[in-house]
Amino acid sequence: MKYRQTDTPPVAAAKASFSTSTAYRIEKDPRLPSQKKGARGSLRPDPLADVFEAEVVPMLKAAPGVRPVAIFEEILRRHPELGAGIRRTLERRIRAWRVIHGEEQEVIFRQTHEPGQVGLSDFTDMGELGVTIAGAPLDHRLYHFRLAYCGFEHAHVVLGGESFVALAEGLQNALWSLGGAPREHRTDSLSAAFCNLDRDARDDLTRRYEDLCAHYGMRPSRNNRGIAHENGAIESSHGHLKRAIADALLLRGTADFDDLAAYRGFIDEIVSRRNARNAKRIDHKRTILQALPDRRTSDYEEVIVRETSSGGFTLRKVFYTVPSRLIGHQLRVRLYDDRLDVFVGGTHLVTLPRGRPHPNGKHDQVVDYRHVIHSLRRKPMALLNLVYRDRLFPRDAYRRTFDRLRERLPDRKACRLMVDLLALAHERGCEAELAGQLAADLDVGQLPDLGRLRAQFAPDPACLPQVVVQLAPLASYECLISAPARSETPHEHGQHRRHRAPQSVAQRAAAASRKDLRQLRLRGRADDLQGAGDRARRWRRLVGQGRQFAAVRPARRRQESFGGSHRPGPDRERMACPLHSDHRSRPETPGGAARAQPRGCHQSPRSLRFADPR
């Protein structure tokens, strides 16, 4: 058309590289060929011409949310002659009618997320991935935490359902992994956690959740019940995370893990890879987050139980065994998502794996055969009809062995042999090795030989440690009795300490023993002076009555042998003050002899010591 503005049709057509006739045709009608086509008419008569306005439209007005397939089935019931070929026609006609005459739909308002403002939590089911632990299916969920702005994620494997304990543990792990706390924490109302709870329990759970958020300085918020898109910042991330885990399991080649810790490490590695993509934004947001408190808050429930004569306690429809020495005692149990910590007062006793009741409400048991094996050995026939017999066996090989024993032996012998096998596994610490040997015996079709197994798992004498005890020579004890004591002047004592010769081990031991003996004598003498014990009380009673103690009479007779005159020693003449704070002098008789010894200064014959004649 640009060439036609300056040239004639033939020249413009030549320059545009098409024929002259085409140029004249465009001159007459500039419309495109597609614009010249008329409306395509129906090739067959409209099958809904008589029923759509008369019957379908009233249905749509009366029930706006009805599905097109329901209207299709109703029309076929009323008019079977129309046939099944009208389904697509009816669906297109209904969609076109709703565009013009339908109700207004809900509008989703996209939000702008500020850095450090909102963190979201939710649970997602992982049953469809088919994860197993040591061959056993793992029924679990994932607690998923995500920051709305930077995309930081944290996932924690939850063995039970949605509960406050699982939320508290997962949320605190996420915050301490992040290194800060957002200003607001949003959940989906914890509908599963509030299920089957009375009003008081709901109020208690709400208060605990608010206290948890207050500990980290977060404002709790919840989305409206049943409106998932209000929590869309984490709901959409559920699918991405689960697909990433599914792909990683396919690349790994198996969904079986040795233990729960290995599976949790696998999940942590996948989440860490996803966080590495947003490392810059996460590092930037860490500077805006609130600081964490000094410590974590409690992420468990505390329950008081009492161990019964059955050797355990029942908690949340699960029976747990504990050591039988606790029967009759109150136990304080801290209930976590995957374990139980059992306390007596403030002393931690044992940690038990947490059990769950069956989906149909039937009770379950968590049994450790080590807790009851000592009683079971005295009553082996109790194993035959034991309520938790299947849970008692630590491995499947033990259960299969008991079934084989019951098939080939009388019940009494079978129970006795099985209990002895469990006791052997406990006493020798060979649970896994013994299970392997029992499985091998079952494969060859023979019963276990208890004597052979005891010899096989007996301690190896070559591996026992050799303990050598060195006895002290008796001469070191002789010197305690024969060595005399010599008093030293302060100057000699100082010189002796400065120029002391090296002593052997025996000499040092003898010196220490002599020192201990001196301390004991002084302590006993002090006790006598202070009047402690029956001997001192008897002495005071006799003195008060004016009588003499039996041990004083020989000394009195010795004094009378000198003609009634008392001959005190030189130390007694020089003494100017009492020997002890309780010492009181007694008045003397007219003959000059003392009536009795001073109070507290009496010594029994066994405690009398004579001066060294040297």
Task: Summarize the SSE layout with pairings.
Layout: H1 9-16, H2 20-28, H3 33-36, H4 52-62, H5 68-78, H6 87-101, E1 118-125, E2 132-133, E3 136-137, E4 141-147, E5 153-158, H7 164-178, E6 184-187, H8 191-194, H9 199-215, E7 219-222, H10 232-252, E8 256-257, H11 260-277, H12 279-286, E9 301-306, E10 312-315, E11 318-321, E12 330-335, E13 339-344, E14 347-353, E15 364-366, H13 373-378, H14 389-392, H15 396-408, H16 411-428, H17 431-444, H18 450-456, H19 475-482, H20 490-498, H21 505-530, H22 534-544, H23 553-560, H24 570-574
Parallel strand pairs: 1-6, 2-8, 6-7, 11-15
Antiparallel strand pairs: 1-4, 2-3, 4-5, 9-12, 10-11, 12-13, 13-14
Helix pairs in contact: 1-2, 15-16, 15-17, 19-21
CATH architecture of the domain at 118-286: 2-Layer Sandwich
Shape: elongated
What is Rg? Answer: 48 Å
Task: Give the CATH level 1 class of the domain at 118-286.
Answer: Alpha Beta
> Which consecutive residue ranges, at least 5 long each, have pLDDT under 50?
493-499, 525-532, 549-614
User: What's the helix count?
Assistant: 24
Fraction of residues in helices? 40-55%
Give me the CATH superfamily of the domain at 118-286.
Ribonuclease H-like superfamily/Ribonuclease H
Largest sheet: 5 strands, mixed
Round the mean pLDDT to the nearest integer and report it.
78
Total E-strand runs: 15
**Structural class per helix/strand content?**
alpha/beta
Distance between the termini: 147 Å
Percentage of β-strand residues? 5-15%
Reported by name, the CATH topology of the domain at 118-286 is Nucleotidyltransferase, domain 5
Give the neighbour order of strands across the main sheet: 5-4-1-6-7
